[in-house]
Design a protein that fits this description.
By secondary structure, the protein is an alpha/beta fold. It has a seven-stranded parallel beta sheet with strand order 10-11-9-12-13-8-14, with helices on both faces. Helix 10 links the parallel strand 10 and strand 11. It is globular, with a radius of gyration of 29 Å. The chain binds adenosine-5'-diphosphate and zinc ion (2 copies). One zinc ion (ZN) binds next to loops.
Length: 733
């Protein structure tokens, strides 16, 4: 009798054997099909890995599967391979890795088919006279149906004010009927473009030629200063592949997926461009996924998880803003979609382009080592000139709500010239914290090693790490004084100050608090694009993907944040953010200026960034990392643990270290650091610790991780903590 060996979404790193369901056609048992099985007290959806001839599970423990859900595997072989590879590489349980590579509805065991969208219409011989005068609502509904002879969905009926509960009555009277509408899956077009492409400059031309000349797999790093026309390179390279009938996949950062970005692709291509954004329902996601798998969707734009979108005719993959950390999933299945894209390109033998103005130090290293072909765009496209930088030394200057007087002067002069000003401050809320003027007490979070942020609208204290909130105290917790003062400035406070300073100009704040409502961002952008002088103040939500042609002054209020971070990537992040923000200045015909307020105007990193640019900074940073034996010169993995009592997590990790120390089979060249308490030890009421493993030899590191994890899985102490492993971590917290 054959046994089904399944990958099942669970924390356990092993496969599970089942008996085939009763009345099962053995021809349907193709690896990759989904199988519904009992698992503990639940029913779950697993993926068939193999049909085995024998099993080690004793016969009385062996359960029967409930049903085989598919006649063919939903994931094509290449995606199955990618997800298995990723599970293995990131040391994540295979069942969960495979499950996460599937759209949510397929994880839940729903059929792998299109939403056969149910529509309603009036029957051909429906006569309104059949309805009595008293049935006013039914009459209305029937009229509505008659206005839509090609069918209308229940959602649309409700939106029109119709009562869907009455559809049944109309059906009984043979006045209405429902039918199934299949999306049009055969979209052919001889003319793939809507608009004529721009004439490329020489650098762009060289980049497009290099990419389109690729046969098979090749990774590229496309490094182009902001405004150099990287997107135009993407568009023209994509054109080459879609003309051959192939598909393109474009991954963008979470907050980079703006309507503006999508609009550029839709304006260019007369082909189905489909977007996987977070507002889609699970049903809509499955439909896009299926259309990609069947080759109907020709250009697919999505965030991190879109890396698992199957393509019938894969042509090329782009990672836009490749340095962005949102490509790395930070919990559960901790994969990096950028790195998986390169692996996928290798499996599917297609080019992969990583585009950015500010490459991650890892990518720069890969380009320097020749692993990625390096393409550079050093000029801004069109007539746009690069912005000029000014370091504004604020050491002796008084700051009013985060603003120095020379900066206020400059803001004024730009507004008076009729242009727009963008002010960047990476702290939302009114003030980073509240302090007692008499004793120095600070409003700390009770569940985290962190201060609570003061918010004005509504008035409360808010921890940005664990989300806990409490009323603002009237007297000091410690000494009873009433002299409580906000310390420092957040976007709310600076917004207020700017409104007072410039009452005649609109001040528009863009941060998580002002953009929560649906379409809020779109409204803000519409206002800005009217082009009238205004002040934009916001967090990094302003930094990415947006195009502000009328902004001529960009001010960075606290350029030093991140300079002294506990994370060795703090400096890299700061530099990338500064240049991203700076790139918003002077993108059209107006020259731009960037003013950076700093307390460290002579810090070598800041000065080299400003005077020599990102490339010089990054090379310096890379050589420091190499000499300090940090990634990317070393491969790195991190065990994290957390527990509700101090010391427990650290004790658990110390046990791991003992295993490392005692392992006589220990691969050569694996080093460890820790365990140490995490830089923010307490968060959301849990005490956290970490243990870092490093090696120059990737294989040795993985071998060691594998054996440690097996040991942990059989250790009962492991249940007393929450632990996880993070391969190639992007942050050290
Ligand atoms: P990036 O993505 O590198 O920041 P974009 O692709 O957004 O740059 O291009 C910046 C601006 O330059 C856009 O308005 C774009 O239309 C324009 N542009 C790009 N390439 C050209 C070109 N070859 N000629 C004229 N304008 C161009
Ligand atoms: Zn006090
Ligand atoms: Zn907190």
């Amino acid at each position: 009798m054959p046994y089904l060996r399944l990958a099942i979404p669970s924390p356990l790193r092993r496969l599970f054997d089942y008996l085939p369901p009763q009345a099962c056609d053995s021809a349907a048992l193709i690896p990759g099909v989904r199988v519904q099985v009992p698992f503990g007290r639940r029913e779950v959806t697993g993926v068939l890995i193999e049909v085995a001839e024998s099993t080690e599970v004793p016969p009385d423990k062996l359960k029967s599967a409930i049903a085989v859900l598919d006649t063919a595997p939903p994931m094509p072989g290449s995606i199955l391979k990618l997800a298995r590879w990723a599970g293995n590489y990131y040391q994540h349980p295979l069942g969960d890795a495979l499950s996460q590579a599937l759209p949510v509805l397929l994880r839940k065991g729903e059929p792998c088919e299109y939403a056969h969208q149910h529509l309603w219409r009036a029957t051909a011989d429906a006569d309104i006279a059949q309805l009595g005068k008293t049935a006013a609502r039914q009459r209305e509904l029937l009229l509505l149906l008659q206005e839509h002879p090609r069918g209308i969905s229940e959602d649309a009926i409700r939106a029109e004010g119709g009562q869907t509960s009455l559809l049944k009555k109309l059906t009984e009277k043979n006045l209405a009927e429902s039918f199934i509408h299949k999306p049009n899956t055969d979209h052919h077009s001889d003319q793939p473009l809507h608009e004529v492409p721009l004439t490329l400059n020489k650098e762009q031309q060289q980049a497009v030629s290099a990419i389109t000349a690729t046969k098979g797999f090749k990774p590229f790093l496309l490094q182009g200063v902001t405004g150099s026309g990287k997107t135009e390179v993407y568009l023209q390279a994509i054109e080459h592949f879609v003309r051959q009938g192939k598909q393109a996949l474009i991954l963008v950062p979470e907050i980079g997926l703006t309507p503006q970005t999508v609009a550029r692709f839709k304006a260019r291509f007369n082909l189905p461009v489909m977007v996987l954004h977070s507002n889609l329902t699970d049903r809509q996601r499955l439909d896009v996924w299926l259309q990609a798998r069947e080759g109907v969707a020709r250009i697919i734009i999505g965030t991190r998880s879109a890396i698992f979108t199957p393509l019938l005719n894969p042509g090329i993959i782009f990672i836009d803003e490749e340095h962005d950390t949102s490509f790395k999933q930070q919990d559960g299945f901790r994969y990096n979609a950028r790195d998986l894209a390169v692996m996928r390109g290798n499996f599917e033998q297609i080019p992969v382009v990583l585009g950015t103005a500010t490459p991650a130090i890892e990518s720069l290293y890969n380009a320097q080592q020749g692993r990625y072909q390096w393409l550079k765009l050093n000029q801004r496209a069109g007539n746009a000139l690069p912005p000029t930088f000014e370091l504004l030394d604020i050491r002796q200057l008084p700051l009013a709500d985060g603003l120095s007087t020379p900066l206020i002067q400059q803001i004024k002069s730009h507004l008076q010239q009729g242009t727009q000003v963008l002010i960047f401050l990476n702290r939302r809320g009114f003030a980073p914290t509240l302090m007692c003027h008499d004793c120095g007490w600070l409003a700390d979070c009770r569940r985290c090693d962190a201060h609570m942020t003061l918010h004005r609208k509504p008035y409360h204290l808010h921890c940005h790490h664990c989300d806990s909130q409490r009323p603002v105290p009237v007297i000091c917790d410690h000494c009873g004084s009433t002299e409580l003062k906000p310390v420092g400035a957040g976007t709310e406070r600076t917004e207020e100050a700017l409104q007072k300073l410039f009452p005649e100009f609109p001040v528009i704040r863009v941060d998580r608090d002002t953009t929560q409502r649906k379409n809020a961002m779109q409204h803000i952008m519409d206002r800005v694009h009217q082009g009238l002088p205004c002040i934009l103040i916001g967090t990094q939500m302003l930094a990415k993907g947006h195009h502000f042609p009328k902004v001529t002054l960009v001010a960075i209020l606290n350029a030093d944040s991140g300079l002294f971070s506990a994370d060795f990537r703090g400096m890299e992040r700061t530099a990338q953010l500064i240049l991203q923000v700076a790139g918003r200045a002077g993108r059209a015909d107006h020259p731009g200026k960037v003013v950076m307020q700093t307390h460290h105007a002579d810090h070598p990193t800041i000065t080299s960034l400003v005077s020599e640019g990102y490339q010089a900074f990054a090379e310096q940073e890379l050589s420091q990392r190499i000499s300090a034996q940090l990634p990317p010169s070393m491969h790195c993995a991190m065990f994290r643990a957390e527990a509700s009592h101090q010391g427990v997590a650290e004790r658990f990790l110390r046990k791991l270290r003992t295993l490392l120390e005692e392992d006589i089979l220990q691969p050569q060249g694996v080093q460890w650091i820790g365990p140490l308490p995490s830089p923010m030890e307490k968060r959301a009421g849990l005490f956290r610790a970490q243990l870092v493993l490093q090696s120059r030899d990737r294989k040795a590191l993985h071998q060691q991780l594998h054996s440690l994890i097996s040991a942990v899985e059989s250790d009962p102490d492991a249940r007393k903590v929450r632990w996880s492993v993070d391969v190639d971590p992007v942050d050290m917290f």
